[in-house]
Design brief:
Blueprint lengths: L5 E12 L2 E13 L4 E5 L6 H9 L6 E6 L2 E2 L5 H11 E5 L10 H11 L4 H14 L15 H14 L4 E5 L7 H14 L4 E5 L3 H4 L5 E6 L2 E7 L20 H15 L1 H34 L6 E6 L7 H9 L6 E4 L1 H8 L1 H4 L5 E4 L8 E4 L7 E5 L11 E4 L2 E9 L14 E4 L5 E2 L2 E2 L1 H10 L12 E5 L3 H11 L3 E4 L3 H4 L3 H35 L2 H9 L4 H31 L3 H7 L4 H26 L4 H7 L2
Parallel strand pairs: 3-8, 3-9, 6-7, 7-8, 13-18, 15-17
Antiparallel strand pairs: 1-2, 1-4, 4-5, 9-10, 11-21, 11-22, 12-21, 14-17, 15-18, 16-17, 19-20
Helix pairs in contact: 3-4, 3-5, 4-5, 5-6, 8-18, 9-16, 9-18, 17-21, 18-19, 18-20
């Protein structure tokens, strides 16, 4: 006597409810063999779907024994049932359950990948199956655009991709018109020639010309079991599929990458949302933590320092250029030569109409009216209260006319103490030539100063001016080993370590509070997006992708998007910081190491989201997940 493929011996299934325990089915005795096409019918709630779920291992059973090829299954673990479904069961459901964002070809390919088919075999096998269900002309079309009948053909092709001996179909024609229903039933009939096909349906009349057997259920019991057509029942060992050499992680990365590419709108939205979070993190981290520490360290507005060579020799232009290159685009370097003249001849200097200064000593923030020069014939002046010079006035120096385009504040950091003195800031090409004061400048001072001695002009000291103390310290650290550095403000900073630590602690508390709010908002947004993908995850499980692999798919998707967001945010901020001063003021406080910390924190956040969602999605059976979605 042939051994049945599936045998149920007094199998019962119970469900816990709020009021007690209800019976899903009771004392079921059935046998199924290859080459059968069995229709299970009955009213709603009669136990049809419960029977299907128990046979597939999607639901457990409490009493009796279920045999597969003569082997008991009552001892099967969750993982054992996953392996069984992955290799031996193909599903066809009423609601099509295709992955809408995939093409027809991709829907079939994912089932082959789940079974561990080799890459070179996948394409040939997928195209063969697509052709068998009559969808070759639609193979590159997204399944969301297919008709109901075409979607059901995709599901059948995907079920066949597993080469599974058992096909379980739960109301596969429930949403189809009559013609499409007949086509699907005909296709299932062809499949049953070498497989076991079990069909759950409410409409037996529709299926009676195709099925070989009809099992009628009522109140969880078998009411009738009719043999409609005699077919040779085959006893055949369940087809064994080679174990995959692909690790779960490799498989998950491949599917996660495909998901990201197949849903560009969702991916772009997720990346932009993540970039906003990363940018917010960078902004608050820089503004609160780094800036707080910097402010605690800085108790002086002085953000310039003086440099002398250790041998006290003169600087040349190449050395000045080299020093400037150690800073940023906001770093200015010039000789202190003019300052030396001011100091030496302080008694006569207040009689000057104007002093001369290098325009490089100023930055945009030093201008309180007007702007910085855009050309060499434009100047900025610092005027006292008695000077009536206005914007766009013309001043003549060295027999050349210059246009006034801006005024500086009297309180700007300066290398001299003559803050009330009128000062002209002009392009240094009018002041220096080959690292020396130009003859016109010397003549200018000689005309204003009695007994002016050209030998008093020294070139052995330069002044380095930065945007602020933080930037100045970075430059100072690069120069201190090679030059004598004079930084008067640094003396006071060491006295305030306790204040710095207190401020840092307070700012971290504020930062964590702000980030908690940001992460809470993004969590709920992404949670809703995940909820909309429940059907996809259930489909993965139904085609044989394990719980572990589905979990990894979610995690890798989150991590890939997080990584893309961090990298893009870094690139965008670097580009913007070179053109927008306000962005520079943010990014200057954040090092590569800081970005790495941000990336790790964001990755941990996305991982926690993925793990939390995975735990939720696997508390529901595949059938429940698929039916919840509709």
């Amino acid at each position: 006597m042939n051994q049945p493929l599936i045998k149920l011996d007094h199998v019962s299934k119970y469900y816990k409810t709020k009021t007690g325990v209800s019976e899903g089915m009771r004392g079921i005795n059935l046998e199924f063999s290859l080459n059968e096409f069995v229709a299970i019918t009955g009213e709603s709630g009669s136990g049809k779907t419960t029977l299907l779920n128990v046979i597939s291992g999607l639901d457990s059973y409490e009493d009796g024994e279920l045999y597969i090829n003569g082997l008991e299954t009552s001892h099967y673990s969750v993982k054992d049932w996953e392996n069984f479904r992955a290799k031996y069961v193909g599903f066809v459901f009423q609601n099509y359950n295709v992955i809408d964002s995939y093409t027809v070809y991709e829907n079939v390919v994912i089932a082959l990948e789940a079974q561990g088919y080799k890459k070179k075999e996948i394409k040939e096998r997928a195209l063969e199956l697509i052709d068998r269900v009559g969808l070759t002309s639609h193979k590159n079309q997204r399944t969301a655009k297919l008709s109901g009948g075409q979607k059901q053909r995709v599901v059948i092709a995907r079920a066949l991709a597993k080469n599974a001996p058992i096909i379980l179909a739960d109301e596969p024609t429930g949403n189809l018109d009559e013609q499409s229903s007949q086509e699907i039933l005909k296709l299932l009939k062809e499949i049953s020639e070498d497989k076991l096909v079990i069909l759950v349906t409410h409409n037996f009349n529709e299926a009676k010309d195709y099925v070989t057997r009809n099992i009628v259920m009522q109140d969880g019991n078998i009411k009738n079991d009719f043999t409609l057509k005699d077919v040779p029942k085959k006893s055949k060992e369940i087809i064994s599929i080679d174990e995959s050499n692909i690790s779960s992680a490799d498989k998950a990365i491949k599917i996660a990458s495909r998901n990201i590419k197949s849903m560009p709108k969702r991916t772009i939205f997720n990346v932009l949302l993540s970039m906003i979070v990363v940018f917010a993190f960078v902004f608050f981290y820089s503004s609160l933590i780094k800036e707080a520490v910097e402010n605690a360290n800085s108790f002086s507005d002085q953000h310039f320092l003086f440099l002398n060579k250790k041998d006290n020799t003169n600087f040349n232009l190449n050395e000045i250029t080299e020093i400037k290159n150690k800073g940023s685009k906001y770093t200015f370097v010039t000789f202190t030569t003019l300052d030396t003249i001011k100091r030496k001849y302080a008694g006569e200097i207040n009689e000057f109409e104007f002093l001369l200064e290098d325009i490089n000593f100023l930055s945009k923030t030093d201008i309180f009216e007007g702007r910085l020069p855009n050309s060499k014939d434009e100047i900025v002046i610092r005027k006292n209260y008695f000077n009536e010079t206005k914007i766009n006035d013309t001043i003549e120096i060295f027999n050349q006319k210059f246009k006034v385009v801006g005024f500086t504040s009297f309180s700007i950091p300066s290398s001299n103490s003559f803050s009330s003195q009128n000062t002209i800031y002009l392009d240094n090409t009018f002041l220096y030539e080959n690292g020396k004061l130009k003859e016109e400048v010397i003549n200018y001072y000689q005309s204003k100063i009695n007994n002016f001695n050209e030998e008093d002009i020294l070139y052995n000291q330069i002044i380095v001016k930065a945007r602020d103390r933080r930037e100045l310290k970075n430059i100072k650290n690069k120069l201190i080993n090679n030059y004598q550095v004079i930084d008067e403000a640094s003396i006071f900073e060491k006295q305030f370590e306790f204040i710095r630590g207190t401020i840092l602690l307070i700012m971290w508390a504020i930062l964590l509070g702000i980030l908690a709010i940001i992460f809470l908002v993004i969590y709920h947004v992404q949670k809703n997006m995940m909820e909309n993908r429940k059907k996809d995850f259930a489909v993965y499980r139904s085609i044989g992708i394990s719980e572990k692999e589905v979990g990894l798919i979610v995690l890798f998707e989150q991590l890939i998007i997080a990584l893309i967001a961090v990298i893009l945010t870094y690139i965008v901020l670097i580009v913007l910081s070179n053109t927008i001063d306000k962005i520079y003021l943010i990014t200057r406080n954040v090092s590569i190491f800081d970005y790495m910390i941000i990336a790790v924190i964001f990755a941990l956040f996305t991982l926690s989201q993925g793990l939390k969602y995975n735990k939720k999605v696997f508390n529901v059976t595949v059938i429940e997940s698929l039916k919840e979605d509709f």
